[in-house]
Design goal:
5-stranded mixed β-sheet; single chain; 193 residues; 4-stranded antiparallel β-sheet
Length: 193
């Protein structure tokens, strides 16, 4: 009965497909597990013999929250990534105050309330050029509750940048992060040299 219940639960959550196959087969799976051991969400990066084949896939098992939300309890400023794989890359570069979403368009009021409730006063966006518009929209919401926003100048995206320039590039980009006003669409990105 235990195994049947577990499989039914996993099917209800979308982790196991009705056919019985695993949704995240042959994928790098990144669970978001809190301090009590509860898994809130799962991100998976499909892999093949040629490497990464597509974008991350997500399953949310609870109310909206950030990946690595535990960071909020001890950080008054955070780096916000669009996905948990980018946050892992930033953490491997030595940046520990990193949280992530399941894509920037997954940002909801619950995320805004969490940042406010934990007393976060600054958010630095670590996003690629193609995500700038979404970052500006989130920054508008954050600045409306007096959370300062800045943006790292990332070349293309974090994965490409770290492969091209190494972890030092990400540390320098964070140190040189520039403020941007959410009221004015910033047309270009600064290059980190």
């Amino acid at each position: 009965l235990g195994d049947v219940y577990k499989r039914q639960t996993l099917q209800r959550l979308g982790v196991v497909l009705p056919s019985g196959h695993e949704r995240f087969r042959e994928s790098l799976v990144i669970p978001d597990i809190d301090e009590t051991g509860f898994c809130h969400q799962i991100a998976a990066l499909p892999l093949s013999q040629r490497g990464v084949t597509q974008d991350l896939d997500y399953v949310s098992l609870s109310d909206p929250r950030f990946f690595n939300e535990g960071v909020l309890s001890h950080a008054d400023s955070v780096i916000l990534c669009a996905d948990p794989l980018d946050s892992l890359i930033l953490r491997s570069a030595g940046l520990t105050n990193v949280i992530a979403l399941a894509g920037l368009r997954a940002f909801e009021l619950d995320h805004l309330y969490a940042l406010e409730a934990y007393g976060v006063n600054a958010v630095c966006f670590a996003v690629g050029q193609h995500q700038h518009y979404d970052a500006v929209l989130i920054a508008q919401a954050l600045e409306s509750i007096d959370i300062d926003c800045s943006c790292m100048a990332i070349d293309t995206n974090i994965r490409v940048s770290v492969n091209r320039y190494g972890h030092d590039y990400l540390r320098v980009a964070y140190q040189q992060a520039g403020s941007f006003s959410a009221n004015v669409m910033v047309s270009g990105w600064r290059n980190v040299e």
